[in-house]
Amino acid sequence: MKQLTSHEGLHCANCGTAMQGEFCHECGQSIHSMLKPMHHMVEETVETVLHIDGRIVHTLPPLLFKPGFLTLEYFAGRRVRYIAPFRLMFVLCLLSFFVFHLAIDQVAGKMPANGRPLLNVDSRAIETAADPAGVREALQKQLDDLQRARATGVLPPNLLEQADVDERDLRRKAERRLAELGAAPAPAASVAVKPPEAAKTAPTPPDDAARRRIRQESAPVRIRWLPDAANARLTELGHRLQENLRIFRHGDAAASAEAKQRMINGVFGTLPPTMFVLIPLFAVLLELFYVFRRRLYMEHLIVALHSHAFMFLSLLLLTLVGMLSTWLQPHAAWAGHALGWLQAALILWIPVYLLLTQKRIYRQGWPMTLLKFWCIGWCYFWLLIFALAIALLLGAAH
User: Fold this and answer.
1) Exposed, middle or buried by CB within 10 Å (0-12, 13-18, 19+), for 93?
2) Distance, CA of 161 to CA of 165 (rounded, Å)
3) pLDDT digits (tens, 9 = 90+) for 125-182
4) Would you tell me the crossing angle of helices 297-328 and 38-65 to the nearest 10 degrees?
5) Count of alpha carbons within 13 Å of 300, Cβ hemisphere only?
6) Hey, which residues does 18 pair with through a beta bridge?
7) What pTM, to 2 d.p., does this model score?
8) Model pLDDT for residues 383-393, shown as the tens digit of each residue
9) Would you state the torsion angle of the CA atoms of residues 50, 55, 56, 57, taken in this order, to the nearest 10 degrees?
10) Which of 45, 54, 228, 258 is most buried, judging by how many CB atoms fall within 10 Å of its CB?
């Protein structure tokens, strides 16, 4: 009665209804004003964060170690202490792809921008040259390639030593071939390695001219059952893809590195939306294979959300363990090997977890569960490959 009498005479500021509590029973608006002192906002923020953290503690361990537990709890109506399935999947999806993107950037940063091997030594052109000028030209080309590899600044010490050994070997083979052709050994200055500034590749053609050439040489996309706007969009994506690949392969170091990073960012930008499309399709597969279990599509969708949340969590852990293993390998080899075994265990746990989840939720015998698990996995595998291929092409055309 105290709670009711404390709001007597008060009316909702939104709809004017007499208040009977802290929230209007007509429109749901709170009686409290949003204009509060700063310390009240800090208190509410801390309370919200602690509440979410508490749900994380109750959600993540079962998600990783108890197949099907969260889904069965959700079906049983015990949902307050756990993070909602869509929110859980959404956060883990973004977080796993973000960390995986960082790992890919670290690997890509150690590779040359144009994608060519760091050390590519081939003495066949020197040994098969028909005249002394050909020998000297082939030798100079190989020395330029070695200098470009050194100039990247990412070669480890062992490869730098190997580059010096390869350079001496190339010079010996060139001198031997010149002697076989009856020519005098070339002076050191004529085969000296050019400085990094002189070893750069040819500059990239102007962007406008390159775009015009690509548009002229590329046939427009014409798919009969698609509208003209969709065909025009596909044609534009094809032009962008060709342009990015041209700059990546034939551009100078700066332009090639920019194109490489642009394509990587584009791919990771398309992956989360791709997965959001695949999750309802996975639920459709569950609906088709368990049509006689008389479950609602929403139940299959919750199974799909929790299954994908587990896979995103596994991807996140695999990436973090891999990054940690790479960092520890030079300092403690035993730790790197132990983390490698942990990664292998995580990879093996993924199919086992998904199989146990399917068995515990749908409660069929092992023979039928194994058969349906294999069929669903086979269908989803090819669906995933197709979707990832499209995401890769769209991202590369970014």
Assistant:
1) buried
2) 6
3) 788 878 888 888 888 888 887 777 777 655 556 667 777 888 888 888 888 888 888 7
4) 90
5) 20
6) 11
7) 0.66
8) 999 999 988 88
9) 90
10) 258
